[in-house]
Amino acid sequence: MLRVILVATLPCLGATAAQAHPHIFIDAGLELHFDDDGQLAQVKVTWVYDDFYSMLVIDDLGLDQDYTGEIDDSEREELSGFDMNWVDGYEGDLFGFADGTPLELSGPQDWTADFTDGRITTTHRREIENGVDPDIGEIVFEVYDPTYYTEYRVAFDPEIAGRDDCTARIDVPDRDAAEAMLQDKLDEMIADGADMADIEAEFPEVGDAFAEEVRIACNGSS
User: Structural domain of residue 28, as residue ranges?
Assistant: First the structure.
């Protein structure tokens, strides 16, 4: 995700330890696709990056050199896939469960990218291995970065395709409790002598405490 671009700017921002994370802010959306057998087969993911990070990426790639806040087709092709070169072990900041059992998701496919109104929007699709029958229980997708380098908000109503008997809702975390927990962990690190560089390198994995959830239930599911 080109994190090195933003890390290089941190000394200029004068961030305190408590403000060290997140660095990137994304408005996320999920589109759930059911197959002809009524099983959840794939998820289309939308990410809309914040203005500042979008500006850094566009500048780094040498796009929008006339500063219109838009790009043409050739630039759009160059931008596409900039955030899809996932390293081994990266889960795409999306974690799915069916009745509490983790879902196996494919890597990203059919990705797109655009830049409008000063913000980058990308999409990608992920297959669900063997599909999942919603009748076994509620399906939940958690959207978060474990390292809390990126903060996600599920900013768009989830969309459902392929079934008309399913509903989706967004559950948000107790952000005050999550912030307090994060601050306690940072205070412990500082008390142990950690400086800003140490905190950045060994930031506690607290992203799940900030996770927003999309919960899908269909008629017949428990």
Answer: 3-218
Alpha helices of the chain — where are they, by DSSP H?
A: 3-7, 10-13, 51-60, 73-79, 175-191, 196-201
Instruction: Give CA separation, 167 vs 32, 99, 114, 200, 215, in Å.
Output: 10, 16, 29, 40, 8
Single-letter code of the amino acid located at 196:
M
114: Cβ–Cβ under 8 A, 6 or more apart, which residues?
A: 71, 76, 79, 120, 121, 122
pTM for this predicted structure: 0.87
pLDDT tens for each residue of 160-214 = 999 999 999 999 999 999 999 999 989 998 998 888 888 888 888 899 999 999 9
How many domains does one find in the chain?
Answer: 1
pLDDT digits (tens, 9 = 90+) for 75-102: 999 999 999 999 999 999 999 999 999 9
Say how far apart CA 60 and CA 64 lie, in whole Å: 11
* Cα gap 26→56, rounded to integer Å: 14
